[in-house]
Amino acid sequence: MPFLNQQRSRQVRRSTKKNRKKRPTQMGDWLVNLLLLGLSVLVISFIWSFWNRNTTNAEIQRSLASLPQETIVKPETLSAEKPYLSMKVEILNGNGVTGVAAQYKDLIRSKGFDVLQTDNADRFDYSETLILVRSANSDAGFKLAEELGLDKSMVKLAPDAGLRLDATLILGKDYASIPAYKKSQM
Fold first, then answer.
1. For the chain, what is the domain count?
2. 66 and 45 in a common domain
3. Domain coverage including residue 87
4. Tens digits of per-residue pLDDT, 35-75?
5. What's the whole-model pTM score?
């Protein structure tokens, strides 16, 4: 009997050695399972996103179909109301009066221009308001002058491709006498 007990203890020791050798493969299996779980979550999120996007678009289409046709705004209608939307303008305060550039920003945006920024000019002693054409699109300056009610002689060519603008409006001391500004103040 002692001989059998010795054999069993050897078998038990061998089995634990085998188990020790299998540990790295068990760790590898654990990593593979974790990777599969992560990929499953990723696939499920893609499916949910696709389903959510398609059902949301269908709901919007149904709600648009229920609206009267005259209330639906079409891109053609938007561009007709704002004909100069692609013209980029900057407004510089050249008269030193605080807040004038912001008032003109609202005025010019209401006319349909895209005002990118407002800032102070290089100096505050401009007696007349000027429009500087900054791009090859010289129509931008003339259309801005027309909308503001300025004489076309106030438009000057001063191309500067680095600014990525169509026109620069420098507000002079005569800013209050510009017809569009007067009209907006009434």
1. 2
2. yes
3. 78-185
4. 999 999 999 998 888 777 766 656 666 665 665 555 445 55
5. 0.55
